[in-house]
Amino acid sequence: MVRNVPNIFKIPDLRKRILFTLAMVVVYRLGTHIPTPGLNPQALKLFLESVRGTFFGLYDIFVGGALSRASVFALGIMPYISASIIFQLLGAVFPKIEKLQRDEEGRKKINQWTRYLTVLLAIIQATSISIYLENQPITSAGPIIILPGLLFRFITVLTLTAGTIFVMWISELITDRGLGNGASFIIFVGCLDETPRAIAQTYQLVRVGELSLFSLILLGAVIFFVYAGVVLITQAARKIPVQYPKRIIGRRMYGGQSTYIPLRINTAGVIPIIFAQSVVVFPSTLTTFFNVPALNVVKEIFSPGGWLYNLAYAALIIFFTYFYTSVVFNPRDLAENMQRYGGFIPGIRPGEKTAEYLDRSLTLITFPGALFLVFMALLPVYLMHTFKIPFYFGGTTLLIIVGVALDTIQQIESHLLMRHYEGLIKGIRIKGRRF
Length: 435
What we know:
Largest sheet: 2 strands, antiparallel
Subcellular location: Cell membrane; Membrane
Number of strands: 4
CATH topology of the largest domain: Preprotein translocase SecY subunit
CATH class of the largest domain: Mainly Alpha
Mean pLDDT: 79
Organism: candidate division WOR-3 bacterium
Structural class: mainly alpha
Radius of gyration: 25 Å
Keywords: Cell membrane, Membrane, Protein transport, Translocation, Transmembrane, Transmembrane helix, Transport
Low-confidence stretches: 421-435
Membrane topology: Multi-pass membrane protein
CATH superfamily of the largest domain: SecY subunit domain
Shape: globular
CATH architecture of the largest domain: Orthogonal Bundle
Strand content: 5-15%
Distance between the termini: 41 Å
């Protein structure tokens, strides 16, 4: 890949896609610094620091700090991601939606429904946030809301919803005319926004003597090996061999080739951690909505780092890993498609037996993937307590960064290989053999 870097900008289509993606990223990052009318950014930042372990802290990481800056892009792409996941789950429950997901026209219709649901979710979230922030006490930097009331709520809902629609439009443009999946790329950019700040905070700790040089070297080694582990787990897959029979049509022989089905160890990606974290921080988030003394006990029990928090977190990650894997991978459909085209797994009967074999194989290899996700999710808690690091070194953000980076690199590689293939065809004249 490194030796092909100079060739990347020699391909006009690839060059346009890269420059377009970078331009959209610049537009998005500029938008995250445009403030929402009626909010006090300093007071909001202090409030979010006080609820860092709750859902708001998690949300702010995914939107690249846009929420703490009181930006018009405070909701980011998350309503669109939520709407997409909802329709994926509905497709696993309702056969009509699953049927629509299989053909081109049906997918266009579902994409349109996803946009409508995104707007609805953005309106609901913006309304909830505006009402919730109005009820918060005055911080040391002043009130969070400058002029509370119906006008503030209306402007906030209108501004944040419009911001979400604009971000959704940018993500679709990146998907169509840029590199990779636009929604994933925007989250990727948001996660990267925390990296310079984290490095600066770590340097400050070393400078004042709160973090020793040995601990810094050890921390760097841990992060390096974690990155390597994420790359390996993201790419790791069990290859199930598939054979297609030979067919003779006229004087030509067709088929007979061998291929394989890659069953990935981490089929579900980062979704299980996002689901599990949203559920496990829900009790502590409730305590910020309702000022009830009895709920403070719940907040203490489910505070990050507690044994019950870690246990519930790990169990939910394993559950959602298997659940979401069953949603995105259907062994029965795959077995039916193989049987329709004459494909079979050596030693396994086509049809129902093939579906059972694929399901059993995927169940076995999903477990180590789920354990790895648990490790990645609990690692930040260990690092914060061991090294006393003030920032949240998130396993979720690591998986997103590595996953999107690998997808982008693979897409660039495919463009380079395609160009190389076309160059060979143009530069070589095929001659027949003389006997």
